[in-house]
Amino acid sequence: MGGMKGVHRSRGEKDETDKHVGLLKLVQVLSFLVVFVAGVVIGLVTSSHINQHFVSKADIYSFINHFSADVPAGKDGNCTVVRDCEKAEDCWSVKTFLRPKNLTHRMSDNELFWRASMAPKKEEFPYKRVPKVAFMFLTRGPLPLLPLWERFFRGHEKLFSIYVHALPGYKLNVSSTSPFYRREIPSQHVSWGTVTLADAERRLLANALLDFSNERFILLSESCIPVYNFSTVYNYLIGSAHGFVQSYDEPTRYGRGRYSRRMLPDIKLYQWRKGSQWFELNRALAVNVISDTKYYTLFKKYCLPACYPDEHYLPTYLNMFHGSLNSNRTVTWVDWSIGGPHPATYGEANVSVDFIQSIRNNGTLCQYNSETTSICFLFARKFAPSALEPLLKLSSVMEF
After folding, report:
1. Which residue, 189, 179, 139, 127, is CA-closest to 156?
2. What's a GO cellular component annotated to this UniProt protein (predicted)?
3. What's CA 240's distance to the chain center, in Å?
4. How far apart are CA 286 and CA 134, in angstroms?
5. How far apart are CA 226 and CA 174, in angstroms?
6. How far apart are the first and last CA of the chain?
């Protein structure tokens, strides 16, 4: 009986041992599975973060280059490639960043101004830079004098850029060979006499700044004409050490009378200036203008009719901070002799050789690079659509 009890005890102990071994193996298997599953989860999370990182980088770079959503695009790795007329263009290239060809984008004004305010610290360019003049047209719709401008630009394609701010969605009816083809920028509605007019001017300026080749920026309307040929205009502007923004103190209700004391202490009465809406700026001044938020916000809040921001903001801002870089005059001739809120308009009956010559040589003397000159106006307004035909016939005096 004692032997039998020893045998039963021995078998029971073995069963217990086997049971413990089995549990140990089960725990080991479960531990392995837990570690394996945790590794898979960590791997998936890490992979997701890495993909989001690179996708966001590509999105940021794509935003900086402001590619249009209207243009068919493919994917090349992490970089969007724009295809236009079966030609692929690398969005990471310096050429695309410096000279964007497509003016359509979905940036808000704040995003646009931030992007346009970028200015390189390095003075040397990584390419052969030929400075261009940006011609910025502010119009409600058609450009009735467009054939004259097309003739003016002909043969100088590498020396200018064109930007048109028209009604939202408006497209100029021009051929694909015209320098105005697809040069409309994303626009917003504009009302005369309100801050929306100054908004449109800044919008034109910011879009033009996206092209690093643009060095000078001239604001024009649909009723403007050039009074010299392209070479004369280009050399005059590119060679100038100053911008051309009219800025003067007018101690009447049409000048100081429009000042609001609510602009204190940032803008004081003695700093207040008035000037023509039709400005010309060099690149350094243009970057400073679209980078300003503080003073422009004051004008949006307190320069209300009968105060007009397009007549006071730039003259005042430049007077306060960049007076030494401004000539305090405009290069666009206008006739205010008739009085009233709008200048004289000239039509077919007014246009002649003598009339154009009188604009060129009207007895005015001005400063150009610290020297006196009689060439003070490069453009003129206002001209009605009926003036187009006689202007096109004045090739002898227009020289284009």
Report:
1. 179
2. membrane
3. 23
4. 11
5. 20
6. 131
> Token pair for residue 107?
């940036």
Q: Structure pTM?
A: 0.79
Q: pLDDT, tens digit, for every residue of 307-366?
A: 999 999 999 999 999 999 999 999 999 998 888 778 999 999 999 999 999 999 888 899
Secondary structure of residue 88 in the 3-state scheme: strand
Q: At what angle do helices 195-209 and 309-321 cross, to 10 degrees?
A: 60
Name the DSSP letter for residue 186.
P
Domain ranges across the chain: 94-396
Angle made by CA atoms 135, 153, 212, in degrees to the nearest 5: 45
* Angle, helix 195-209 to helix 109-116, in steps of 10 degrees: 40
Strands (E), 12-150: 73-76, 79-84, 87-90, 132-138
In the chain, where do the E strands start and end?
73-76, 79-84, 87-90, 132-138, 160-165, 214-221, 225-226, 280-282, 332-334, 366-368, 371-373, 379-381
**Residue whose pair of structure tokens reads 């502007």 in the numeric block:** 237
Using an 8 Å Cβ cutoff, are 124 and 203 in contact?
no
